[in-house]
Amino acid sequence: MIRFILNDTLVESDATAGTVLLDVIRYQQQLKGTKIGCREGDCGACTVLVGELNQDRVEYKSMTSCLLAMATVHGKHIATVEGLNMDKLSPVQQAMVDASGTQCGFCTPGFVVSLSGCCLSREKVTEDLAVRAIDGNICRCTGYKSIERAASDVAQQLAQKDTTDPIGWSVKNGFLPAHFIGIQERLRSITKQEMANDPTAVTVAGGTDLYVQKHDSMHHNPVRSVANDTALKGTRFEHGECIIGGACTAADLLNSAELNTHFPKLEQHLLLVSSTPIRNMGTIAGNFVNASPIGDLTAMFIALDSTIILRNTEGGTRELKLKDLYKGYKQLDKSADEIVTTIRFPLPNTGTHFHFEKVSKRTYLDIASVNTAIRLEMDGDTIREAHMSAGGVAPIPKYLANTSAFLTGKPANKDTVRAALKVMNGEIAPISDARGTADYKRLLLRQLFFTHFMELFPERFTLNELVQ
Amino acid sequence: MKNIDSAGHVTGRSIYLDDIPVQQGTLYALPYDAPSAHAHIKKLDLTKAAAVPGVVRILTYTDIPGENQIGGIIPDEPLFAEHEIHFWGMPVALIIATSEDAAVQARKLITIELEELPVITDPREARAKGELIIPPRSFKLGDTANAWANCAHVFEGRADTNGQEHLYIETQGAYAYPAEHDSIRIASSTQGPTAVQRTIARVLGIPMHRVEVDVTRLGGGFGGKEDQASAWAALVALAAYVLKKPVKLAMHRMDDMRMTGKRHPYSSDYKIGFDKDLKIVAYEATFHQNAGAAADLSPAVMERTLFHATNSYAIPNVNVTAYCCRTHLPPNTAFRGFGGPQGMFVIESAIAHAADQLGVNASELQRRNLMVEGSEFSYGQIADHVNAQACWDLTDRKFDLDKLQADVDAFNTTNEMHKKGMAIMPICFGISFTNTPMNHARALVHVYQDGSVGVSTGGVEMGQGLNTKMVQVAAAVFSIDPSRVKIESTNTTRVANTSPSAASATADLNGKALENGCNAILERLKEKASRMLKSSPEAITIVNEAVLNNGQPTDLDWKKLIHAAHWDRVNLSESGHYATPNIHFDKTKEKGHPFAYHVYGTAAVMVTLDCIRGTYAIDAVKLVHDFGKRMNDAVDFGQIEGGLVQGLGWMTMEEIVYNDKGKLLSNALSTYKVPDIHSVPKEITIEALPTDGHPLAIRRSKAVGEPPLMYGIGVYFAIQNAIKAFRPDARMVFDAPYTPEKVLMSLYG
Fold it and tell me: Please, are residues A389 and A294 in contact by the beta-carbon 8 Å criterion?
């Protein structure tokens, strides 16, 4: 029995653990404000706010309920648009009305829910953050400008929000209904669910890939959710290494102050990864084992020279370089009973340079045509160590071993880069598909390869010199 | 006045097809569609699927009591494939089960043996093989053959546009219930309730009066539910009719994308000639429309391409020809603009080509050739109330086009990695169904005895704000508070024989019908009031719910008058009818006066190109639009922004990809990208051209649904100009969308 609080009501659902929350909300609980647009997390029409107990507080994140396994929902507070409704329109709803941010209205509840998340966060809400909150919501009618105006209005109205007690403040000021107070105690009273020890169970983390691929069969499978496993969460920094739990999400990385200090452009890089609700769900390990040849996090962590720890059901562990996980298209050096528990990589030092590039048809909330990451350890002008990855140019997320080796020990100048390009072209084999032709991907990777150097050493490289 | 549905939308209380409370015993339908674009069916094996627990029945063409035919314009489209498959995604069977899940599991077990046949996806190939759905049509003005000799400059080339997925966020769907007397009641997410009714009647072999279609609202349509909602409605109606049970289908997104048609791709050739003063002397174009496997609305879409082939330009010699080419893609269909944008892209390409060769700014060629009062369109209509020049001039005055261009040029001289580009996009779009007989509508008005008003029209609310405008119309005619007016669902038993909500004309046609209905009741009310006040009907007016006699207040107000009229047996209901006057078109001569009026506008578009990565951002779109006398800024400005963004999506990131077997590869939201909040212009500035409006527009407020989509075309040419700034010798390519891939290939390829 899966127990969770849906808006103001404790729900005990007999839905299978693999059923998605969306279907429970709409067809069991008959709350029809949460809409179905795509069932693959790409439109945001089914967005809900998911509240999770974290020590002394409930933290809310927006998620797309079409990809959210019921197994993960146990013990959570789920807020749908119905749970945001009050006697009169909330300021978020009113802002959407005032700005004419709704036309056909089908996407609108998703926008309202996403924007309402701003009331619950412990951040000071800026206009940029309000827009970021709705970066996973697609509207086909308005052209977004009216919604932007609504978001801006919401940000201004939330300027006075008490970031130490956002829920109390939001309830007191009429942004949220009163039932948000007291959710914390109610969640505490829901006992943790014992995980059934079924060897045939499918391991689900964020579900953001699994449910896209197997949307019509997952509810028939026994499912084991690791999304709530605190042992797989958290980021540690010790012995010159960064150690990250496999169930950490892209949002966890984005919110890690320490990681952002080590990688000043991390935010810029991670915002290119999917959208806010998907970053709130999708895990790092999930990105790795999905083995998409264009996984963004995979490309980043391969270039960081990461090591992963795999653990089987008996508790046995082994270590592997992430780059060595990939054996062929969707083929892994990983048995079915192993999960990725931990990722670690050496922390950057003064000579470290890291950069990530991605180009897709749509800059945000899209899958890359080509992505690439590079980590360079510099000794003055000399590249002491190089690790470079590329996605979309091979059947696997590609560690560019030859290119990396070639760069090692060379001076960082245009001759090195141009010579390395030849090496790189020899170790990639892009194919033509919906994300671009093979010729394009080859050209694009060249451009992004040049971009790495121009971004990392702007004083040393110019486009004209590199392209010639 | 804000959209009257706003509060329902933001609270999630608005009801769409999939939100209708489900009746007990409802069954779920799921189409099984062809896994090939062109093949003979050798064997279809349903046995394993039929054995899945929960599966009630699997229907095929043999279960159809009426005709296996859904073609609207031409009867060339079976509902179910019989022996041959014509496109990948063509329905072959319909699984009916007690749950959606059972139907989904059953579908995986259907097997089909096929004898594959050659697949055509390219309209030029189809034309070469004689695969035309209708004979080609040509619009001619003057004499192009002799005009070329008078041209100082002549340019020829090719211009292609890809299709566009509608991506209404609410997918297609319908929910049918069997009713008494062998009838069907059906809720459908359709822009064309009558089309659904007619199609179901035909498929079931029953008269139309036994089919009641009800539409509350659509979660977006954009043309995709004008004709193509009918197939899904007919499928569930068939199942409900055969099984005598309620049957529902709300399509999965990937099924919807795979099985439905899209905006038509076009491949076109153009030839344009200028005199020494850069006036366009002659224009010829040949349009190859990729119609897909059946006619659907393609002949009508093709016609509008011809109507808009010359966009906003006065050209004395025109010869444009269009071919409706049958291929093995899903039948392509209406999409906002309805062939007009495809035609306009070609002449804008021709102008851009000429400008490049002549070394002048394209805007100079555009400006010199704008239509003026009395210009003749190639189809014989003489332009009146022309605002082409006025829109251009106001754009220049408000935004200073020379300054904008100078800023772009200045940026480009100082930046190496980024280049800016600017383009101007004038538009001219004709309002009316080009098929003249469709330009009429009805509205049913009930004034209830308590003074509240119920209105039914033939129009469908799909986000365009129709119902809001209808409230305004009724409230204005009666001079009552808008809160007294309720808009009912669109229902074929209340308003019959409707034209679809399309052609931007829904508010005009239904609004004028509503005005007529309200006015008829108003006349009776005035007559009643005059008797009560011992005055004459001409002396009576109603102003803000007060009944005035010769302009003076009386004891009567709206509520009292209604109450009195009711007890005096005055008819407080009326069905208003409206047919657009003055329009006609003779297809045998391809001449006439098909449009009630035209809508004009001018947009300036600025983009910034990332010359390393081949990506781009749209900095600003500044435009002047010919709204007429605006009746609702909130609705109309929303249409401009939304239409523009849909148009620029078509020109930039929205890329439909079929493989050479006719299989859709861009088959989900993960592979087909529409604009998100980050990809829209950083600035959209909209100025209204101040005019008195047009008498044939509802309350002189012009139709606004489709025209702004075509501003988006400017983005293509702005990107192209930015590419030229980086690489002056870049080849001019006219092949939309300008994806980052094509941009990078233009920059370096």
Answer: no
